[in-house]
From TrEMBL:
Sequence ranges assigned to domain AAA-ATPase-like in this UniProt record: 4-223
Domain of life: Bacteria
Species whose genome carries this gene: Beggiatoa alba B18LD
InterPro entries attached to this UniProt entry: AAA-ATPase-like_dom (IPR018631), P-loop_NTPase (IPR027417)
Protein name as it appears in the record: AAA-ATPase-like domain-containing protein
Amino acid sequence: MKFPYGISDFKLLISEGYYYCDRTDRIPLIEEAGKQLIFLRPRRFGKSLLLNMLANYYDIAKTEQFTQLFGHLKIGENPTVKHNQYVVMTWDFSAVLPMGNTIELKQALYNYLNVQMLATYHTYQAYFSEPLLVQEDALMTWHHLLSLIRQTPYKLYLFIDEYDNFANEVMATKINENQRYAELVYGEGLLKSVFKNIKIAATGNGLERVFITGVSPIVLADMSSGYNVVTSIYRLPEFNDLCGFHAEEIQTVLSKIAEKCAFSAKQQQTAFEVMKQFYNGYSFSLKTDSLVYNPTLALYFLRHLAQYCEYPDELLDHNLAMDRNRLNYIAQLPHGSAVIENALDEANTFSVPKIHDRFGLEDMLNHVQGENELASLLYYLGVLTLDGTTPFRDTKLRIPNLVIKSLYVEKLRQLLLPTVQDQDYRKILQPFIATGNLQELCDFIASRFQVFSNRDYRWSGEMALKTAFLMFLFDDRLYIMDSEPELNRGYADLVMIVRPDARQYQILDHLLEFKFLSLKTLGLDATQINALSETELHALPAVQTAFTQATQQLNSYRPPLLAHYGDALRLKMTAVVALGFERIVWQGIEVNETLIS
């Protein structure tokens, strides 16, 4: 089985026998949805392949190849009457370099558009009665190409991939210097002029259909009336899985890999559960419960598994490092760090009144409701996803999976403890993960715990404690990490399960429970707390009570984990108690069958 990792050429994919997840049955729905459509998904989510598939389907020049390309697919059984009925042209705005001043940007864009229009002319030259006049002003070239098309029996289908790519790159270069961005989209800006001419072309001037992909609606909103005729389809339930894989599709592929690699049924199921934890969880419509897997990450994993019969060492594909850059950008914006912190707080529902479809850069930078716009942007970027609604019809959001969660944890550590480097704490983690001895890490965190005392009022002491440990313990090279998993009708604070392919290493599985005692509860001040020894801290009645409560909880969480993971589990249970933001004590918890209900 060949996996098309990084391949967005549909014809190549089909002709060379790569795996293809068939979504051609949606073509009739796309036709019915409207003539000018926009479909938004996070980066590296299969949008370019979708566009290329549609371009091949509608291309009059590919008529003779229809059976070869589509005959074995769902649409091949009952194609629409519009197949192979268009002159097609694709503009990929990610090919336009966002360098230089506005004049240089204009030249770069116009040069690219001219190249694409000339290539289109050559493809359909047999249908045209005169040569294309390529002019320095690409918009004039555009109108001449349309005049040539109007002389044929056919119309133009224009595909625009990554419509917002180079504008977003310009926007993100310097957060407080967005003059170049403004000159692209506001007033008679460059991009606005291009889309205004597309709008004009669709009023009986040769252009019949437009399909646009991108990441967010920001650029479209900022262009305002420049292109206000497009229909949004990206949150409709019938297109929730237009890009991405279902669990059943992942299972089918894994069964074939399992046969090749001689995996047992348990090994196959374990591989599926790993993929589910790390790559699943995306929802783009509130009107369906179906979740989709990130296709690029899934193909990255499946290709490696099929080739080597083992998991890739790094479960985060480094080609998705741009998500890290987007989080960095968000963190610089007003309300940015608060949104990132709130997203990681799984103990409390993260919700917004609605996902905004029309908000611009100015809204994010200046508007009093900026936090809602930022949360919406994180949704479009794929680092938050839909999670249903609250009783008051607010939209709930959550981090989709462990790959994205690792980016949040990394960013939060940079925000809160910018001077702490990986090498500062990697070695002190080893005693804990190998033996369960948490002392060195407790001392390390306690010396830096004060930074949490100054955080936003939404941070509870227990949340601060759990987050502090999560920032340093999160390691997807060794563990499948989960905070707030439901176990035996309760929620464990932090579960660290050794990755199936890391069981040969000298590391333990861990189950941790955190308790926070305020100085008021303790009846002591900071000076008194710091004067006590570890033994004296453990002897405090409130601390003993906290450890007793944690012990009961941990013992109740243990049986479901044992039932799920079986004899492979080497579980170490640990209770951690913070005394204000001054001291942290811990205790290894032994199994007590009498406490298990």
